[in-house]
Design a protein that fits this description.
This protein is an alpha+beta fold. It is built from 12 helices and 11 strands. It is about 50% helix and about 15% strand.
Length: about 450
Amino acid sequence: LSAARFDDGRRGMTGGLSLGNIGRMAGASALPVGMLILVGLMVIPVPAFVLDVGFIANIMISLAVLMVSLNAAKPLDFSAFPTVLLFATLFRLSLNVASTRVVLVDGHNGPAAAGHVIESFGNFLIGGDYAVGLFVFGILMVINLVVITKGAGRVSEVSARFTLDAMPGKQMAIDADLSAGMITEEQARARRTEVEAESGFFGSMDGASKFVKGDAIAGLHARDALKGPRLADLLALDDPAMIDFIQRRGAALGLALAGCNMVVSDQPWFERNAASPVIKSGIWGAADKEDCTFDSSAPLSEWPECSEPAIIDAQGNFNSRDKTSGDWRSITAVVGGGDPMILQFALPQEMVSQAPGAPSYLYFALRPLARDADGRITDMRIWSVMCGPLAEGAEQSGDPKAMVTKQPFAGLTLKDGNCQAKDIPALTGAAARSEALQDKTGHGHWIRDARPEEMPAG
């Protein structure tokens, strides 16, 4: 008896590992694995070529679904259409999220940073005129949401309602034909199955259309995300992305600064002279990174990213290395006296010239925390000079218009979306009041002198 049980168990084990069972297991696992891949596209950064492959596959799937739908004689010939539509829409949503992330993170590297499919479509749509391209793109989004998506959703709702309302009558007609002997029991059973399948199909189409509508709305919010993060989140001394942002986004600088409620000017309020406060030249780093340990005597190229180093040269200019290209980028800075002191940044002229009406200077407040024996600043906190307090809930609203104060500080005026001070005392007063409005201030400290080979070229 034991031997028979062992033999039956062995046959069961080997039977479970047959090629047929393995094939069925693989088929059953395809759906959850596919779902995991789609979710992974939303949360895991992917390279540009993966986006290209995904967009091409999405177009091919769409064409295949279109051809099958057009050649279907009746709805049940393509009964899997609601399910296919559901997964195709989820696939498109995943590509939408993944491409938005790539554009926001790597968009400054050029038009092909998000893949050649996006680049080719953008060039074709814009046609060399960005204004026309933006209007055409907006019209296409409105057509997709208002005409196609809402229209298809309404058609699905009406079809599902009429089909469900007609279902009792169809069942009664089948029973009448069966009672009259016009059809057999097998034919009646087949017709009942078809009626149930048809009602299920239109009900599923109603749900799938709502999913497609939600995808279209999510696509609009994804486009809004391409406006980028607020400049105020990047403008901190301990964030090297500050210099990169200022130098690379000059074309939208005026709108960005106005949307961040910052004080700017067309002409400088301060000039460097012998009486100007001096920030000690050398390598500076973030002072609040307690968990970032490294050997400061090592070459600068070996320092970890958490140190967030920046070089202040003998002229007081701020220099930071671009994380992507490795190039050094510089911003001319002048420190003005007062309590608090004012840190004036001059935006690169070639960038300002790309945005007519954009300001040339922006301002931060600076409070020295330590000086060396020669009176040079070696430890400091900085924060942006704000135009005024924001309305309650403005930062959570996501509305760019809400990010500009309605009550500028004394001596400040809003003109063409830019907040400017009428004189230096007004600028200093706004700097003092802005400290209470900051959730976080930048804290930097001098680490050591920069070696000749570490200084930026030029």
